[in-house]
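Supplementary Methods. Inverse-folding protocol.

Structures were first reduced to a discrete structure-token string of length 120. This string, shown here, constituted the complete conditioning input.
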């Protein structure tokens, strides 16, 4: 993560599966932030954990994302909240996103996230 790279797929899948199994008795469902990050992650998730009901995709320009992450850096204490790592993370994100959006097209909900005042 510190280098702006993705955590290995099997580690992420195991962590998510364990959290879901633990919370299953009292849960009404799950919202997994930032997942899947790769098409194959989504396929493995559905094969090993559960079907995906919906993918929510917040659309914002790269500059908006950079500005927001640099703003978060002021208080987060995260070592990966710096311009160099943010740009690497965005490049990685952009490399994999289209395949995910295409794979889940029928389950995809896009939300314009450019504004700071989202109304639902």
């Amino acid at each position: 993560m510190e280098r702006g790279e993705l955590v290995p797929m099997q580690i992420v899948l195991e962590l998510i599966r364990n959290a879901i199994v633990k919370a299953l008795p009292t849960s009404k469902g799950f919202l997994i932030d930032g997942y899947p990050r790769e098409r194959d992650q989504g396929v493995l998730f559905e094969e090993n954990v559960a079907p995906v009901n919906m993918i929510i995709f917040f659309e914002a320009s790269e500059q908006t994302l950079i500005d927001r992450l640099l703003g978060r850096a002021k208080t987060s204490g995260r070592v990966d909240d710096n311009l160099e790592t943010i740009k690497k993370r965005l490049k990685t994100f952009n490399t994999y996103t289209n395949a995910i959006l295409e794979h889940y097209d029928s389950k995809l909900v896009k939300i314009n996230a450019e504004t700071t005042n989202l109304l639902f």
